[in-house]
Amino acid sequence: MKHLAAYLLLGIGGNTSPSADDVKGVLSAVGIEADDDRLDKLISELKGKDIQELISEGSTKLASVPSGGGGGGGAAAPSAAAGGGAAAAEEKAPEKEPEKEEESDEDMGFGLFD
Question: What is the pTM of this model?
């Protein structure tokens, strides 16, 4: 993903056919080491192809993929058997108290812009 993201950034910047060295330059600018095998495969697969065209084709394909669900069925209504009302009240489990969570450092020791 990092290689593709760098490739797309170069495309947005006006480089319509980024080379492996261009992608490595973007990744090294943010302290990421490029994986040569994956980068070479990406470059070879995208060579001579229009990125905008690939994105629009992919969007069309994704539009046909079902996402979400139809929702689950409704819950069944409890049966009202003879004398079941009193028994159901007795069988009701006591509610558990919510467990207290330990306070934690939400940013885990680093910030977004550090």
Answer: 0.53
